Amino acid sequence: MLQFAVLNAALFGLVLSLTTCVCELTPVPVTQPCVTALAEDHGSLLRGLWMQHIRDRLRGNAPPPVRVYSKQKLLYCRVGIGFHIQIVQDGSVGGVHTPTEDSVMKVFAMQQGVVGIKGVKSGLYLCMDEEGITRGVEQFSDACLFKENLEANHYTTYSSLSHPGFYLALSNRGELKRGNVVSRNQACTHFLPRDDEL
Question: What was the pLDDT predicted at 15?
Answer without folding.
Answer: 37
